[in-house]
Amino acid sequence: MHVKSRHHLRSDEIDALVTSLSGQLGIELSGESYERVEFTDIDREVVLVDGEPLIASFDGDLFVTVRGANAYPPEKHVVTVDSGAISFVSDGANVMRPGITEATDDIEPGDLVVIVEETHGKALAIGRAVTDGSDMVGDSGKVIESLHHVGDDLYEFHV
């Protein structure tokens, strides 16, 4: 990931971002500085909050990164997986029904979600829901497409 440009967000952009994430995830993002980073080699932007890559674009939608979800644990759009799914999810695998123990009811198909492990509630990945949250627990089938996970290029990015 090669940085093309960095610039500070305007106060109205920060307000819109904070409001969006509050409504979407139930988090209260706070920071002294917000910088947008664009890259030459990938079609993604990252928002640094106090120098940390806590927000990124996923198919054009700004959402927390794994680091962001661990710094500001969400109350909404959360899918919990059991210990057997941790290694697969952490390696970037799509999430299948048998590994899910719980999902918030506010999730609809196409929504971005945070995937957490059940023991400590730590975020492992960010994905896009394929089905409703109420339909995620079950015996078979893919329910979340993985977009970002612990250990990938975005997770390892620092400025």
Notes on the structure:
By secondary structure, the protein is α+β, with helices and mostly antiparallel strands. It has two domains: 3-71, Pre-PUA domain, domain 1 (Nuclear Transport Factor 2, Chain: A); 78-154, PUA domain (Archaeosine Trna-guanine Transglycosylase, Chain: A, domain 4, Roll), CATH 2.30.130. 19% of the residues lie in helices and 37% in strands. It is built from four helices and eleven strands. The strands form two sheets. Strands 7-11-10-9-6-8 form a six-stranded mixed beta sheet. It has a five-stranded antiparallel beta sheet with strand order 1-2-3-4-5. The chain is globular and about 45 Å long. The model has no long low-confidence stretch (mean pLDDT 93).
What brief labels describe this structure?
159 residues, alpha+beta, 6-stranded mixed beta sheet, 5-stranded antiparallel beta sheet, 4 helices, 11 strands
Please tally the helical runs, counting DSSP H or I stretches of 4 or more residues. 4
Biggest β-sheet, characterized?
6 strands, mixed
CATH class of the largest domain: Mainly Beta
CATH topology of the largest domain: Archaeosine Trna-guanine Transglycosylase, Chain: A, domain 4
Q: Helix and strand succession?
A: EHEEEEHEHEEEEEH
Q: Which geometry do the CA atoms define?
A: globular
Percentage beta strand: 35-45%
Placed side by side, the strands forming the largest sheet appear as 7-11-10-9-6-8
What structural category do the secondary elements indicate?
alpha+beta
Overall average residue pLDDT: 93
